[in-house]
Amino acid sequence: MRWTTVLLTLAAAVPCADAALPLAQALREEVKVEERVVALTVGELQQTEEQIQGAWVRVERQSVDLLRAQEQGESLDSLRLREEDLRAAEAELMMHIRHAQQLRREIIGERLRIAELLAEVQRLETTVGSADDPISGPWRLVVEPGGQEGYMSLVLDGTLVQGTYQLAGGWTGSLRGTLVAGKLRLERIDSQIGFASVFYARLTGGGEDARLEGTWDATQLATGMPSSGSWVAERIRELPP
Questions:
Q1: pTM score, two decimals?
Q2: Across-strand partners of 223?
Q3: Would strands 194-204 and 183-190 be described as parallel, antiparallel, or unpaired?
Q4: Which domain holds residue 33?
Q5: The domain spanning residue 172 has which CATH number?
């Protein structure tokens, strides 16, 4: 069974938002894989079409040469050799044509799987960010000072929050914390420097209009680096590719 089929089967059985977001992210990664496969197959099809053109030219030339040889009364042995060469060229042409047909079928199949995956991603992402789960899903954020932009994905489990983030400058890592009475506390665990800071925010609005706004404090003080600041985040439909 293809990995794509496995993911779609799991997605159909997802019971809650807690599992929906991680599975949606996995499906998006699978979409990237499928798109790379399509790109490779399209490249192979282009090469095959060029081979078809070359083989067609050879068939046409050899057909004309054979007809001219017959008209000019060439020997039987010579005509037989020309016929064999023409048959070989025709066989090569048909081989390339059959290969091109197979590649076109594969491309259509891959694009169909991509469409199915994207439709399932959209369905899964609509299960998060509801009134019962106002925090799960993708967010765009800006951290001050400096206007550092980035993205994060959060998942709510009761009052516990976990997720991942990426900030401009190559900073990535995980987030963990709590959401209680609309107040969010997140610990930022950076992949390079570890426990880097604590983010505090109040959640306002709901659905697509949800917004997080608050402050942050560094847990590691470095010369020339700010020790605190503010931040805001707005809900988005999906993370950028």
A1: 0.49
A2: none
A3: antiparallel
A4: 3-125
A5: 2.40.128.120
